[in-house]
Amino acid sequence: MGIKLVSFAVVSVLLGYYVYLPLPEALGERWKLMMVDACFRSLEHLAELTEFIGLKHYMEVMMLLTVAEMVGPTSDENVTVVDTTFNGVAVRVFEPTRRKPGLRRAVIYIHGGGWCLGSAKMLPYDALSRKTATELNAVIVSVEYRLAPQHHFPDQFNDVYAVVKYFLQRDILAQYLVDSGRVAVAGDSAGGNLAAAVAQQIREDPKVEVAIKIQVLVYPALQTIDFNTPSYQQNGNMPILPKSLMVRFWSEYFSRDKLLLKDMTDNTHTGREDRGLNSLVNWGILLPEKFRKQYKYSPPGRGNEGISSASVPGIFDPRAAPLLAPDEKLRALPRAFIMTCEFDVLRDDGVMYATRLQGAGVHVTLEHFEDCFHGVLMFITWPTNFAIGQKLLGRYMDWLQENL
């Protein structure tokens, strides 16, 4: 009996040690987040082990998170759900079942997951699309784009671009009873990246007659120049998306080359010829003081020749990193709603993009959540339903209701 009791006590202490993280007081529901993060870290450790011994690629194991939450295209009394293809790209379309007078709004939604994980078929995205379709009387097109490591940039961008271009045809909008003046593009994390990139590029396409009205970017990843911004430094070990995982996502988006991953991790991945881009992401200028905090700006890549954009095609392409677009490309972009979280390595990407868009004359609403962490919009369904996730979701819905 004594041995069992001691064993139980030892296991309990070790489990508590593994689960516990010293999280900031401002974060809501810290113990719940610790438990969720412990599950995430366990899967990450398994992914690292299986990759190390050569059984599976790291992201193939991490994809279990996505597969576990997939649901079918089930219609109900409020929403008709159909899996189909637009321009050869898989999409899940949500249409309000009850017909109301007049034309409907539309949101083209792009899921997150670091260009490697995620799916429009995951329960949280399914729930988000159903809620948006019902409350806004809107058609939701949720894009199922190709993922790394099997597919690299620009495949993800091309898939999303193809869907948006297809849907913006007047006959397609008419088929879905959508008002051509009320179409939004939205996305979270890597999906916010793709939404911003498509919004920049599609307005220059002479074959696209219908304009996107608004863009909604939820804690977006927007730049590949500097992985040492204040938010990367402050939140490098934060749950769900530590710096190591975000840099791995960026690396896998472009290549399986482990040298690229190492250079990105060390923030020495810019070549001399690329350093003219530093001004576009100079957080010493673009970030308000409250976000710069005590950190001092130092140009990335200094003292190292880096990999250069020539050795990894696309790494500094604005289609991959929208914050690297020149000012003239930002002018006349659609109205933007950017949501950022305090405890998120990507916080400063969103804030800097808001600053640059405002400087280019774009109407921007920047909503910063002081008590939120990255990925919180994924935690809106049982058993990982966070109150702060519901708060962010509510603000997302309210802004769309008012502006679309």
Describe this structure in words.
With 404 residues, the protein is an alpha/beta fold. 42% of the residues lie in helices and 16% in strands. The protein contains 17 helices and eight strands. The protein has an eight-stranded mixed β-sheet, with helices on both faces. α5 runs parallel beside α17, α6 crosses α8 and α10 packs across α11. 45% of the residues are buried. About 2% of the residues have low confidence.
Distance between the termini: 66 Å
- Anisotropy-based shape: globular
Task: Give the helix/strand class.
Answer: alpha/beta
Strand order of the largest sheet: 1-2-4-3-5-6-7-8
Secondary-structure element string? HHHHEEEHEHHEHEHHHHHHHEHEH
Question: What's the total count of β strands?
Answer: 8
Percent of residues in helical segments? 40-55%
Work out the strand percent: 15-25%
- SS summary, helix count: 17
Radius of gyration: 21 Å
Mean pLDDT value:
93
Q: Report the uncertain regions.
A: 6-14
Largest sheet: 8 strands, mixed
Which features would summarize this protein structure in a list?
single chain, alpha/beta, 8 strands, 42% helix, 16% strand
Strand-helix topology:
Layout: H1 2-19, H2 30-52, H3 58-62, H4 64-68, E1 79-86, E2 89-96, E3 104-110, H5 123-136, E4 138-144, H6 155-167, H7 170-175, E5 178-188, H8 190-202, E6 214-218, H9 230-234, H10 243-254, H11 258-266, H12 283-286, H13 289-292, H14 308-311, H15 327-330, E7 335-343, H16 347-359, E8 364-373, H17 387-403
Give a short summary of the structure.
This protein has 404 residues and is of the alpha/beta class. The chain is 42% helix and 16% strand.
